[in-house]
Amino acid sequence: MMKTIMQTYLGVFFLFLLMGCSMMSLTAAMNARMADLYKTKYVRELEDSDFADYTMRKVFEDAEDRDYKLVMQLYQETDGKVFVSERIRNASEIPAPQGKTYMVRLELTFPYSFPMLNAVIDHTLLGYAK
Predict the structure, then answer these.
(1) Which residues have CB under 8 Å from 106's CB, separation 6+?
(2) Measured torsion, CA atoms of residues 90, 71, 101, 43, in degrees rounded to the nearest 10
(3) Strand 119-129, strand 69-78: pairing
(4) How far apart are the C-alpha atoms of 15 and 5, rounded to whole Å?
(5) CA-to-CA distance for 99 and 91, rounded, in angstroms?
(6) Mean pLDDT throughout 4-13?
(7) pLDDT per position as a tens digit, 21-51
(8) pTM value?
(9) For residues 35 and 19, is the Cβ–Cβ distance under 8 A?
(10) Average pLDDT of span 75-103
């Protein structure tokens, strides 16, 4: 009788542990998927606006509102020469155009967290707007 009670409690404990770990994994995967969708959205917005300064500022503001860290690098061409900007970390660092921007490299960093384990790891997604 006592053995059955102990096995039942142990089984219920492991069932709840498994459910908690599953929920943590699903939550982390959903957060990663949302970050990937926003990265794709930012790339599309930049491409559709032909890399307008206003759109770049809007993308930085939106990423900041969602607690994402965004880094851009501009590739510009003038008279056959290619200029690559420094890494731009916020909207105030957007440089004056040196030519026609033909590509933007985006790095979107987001927290990948497991709350029950008190673990937060930063993951970075990379995208190119052409």
Answers:
(1) 39, 42, 43, 46, 70, 71, 72, 126, 127, 128, 129
(2) -110
(3) unpaired
(4) 15
(5) 19
(6) 90
(7) 888 889 888 999 999 999 999 999 999 999 9
(8) 0.84
(9) no
(10) 87
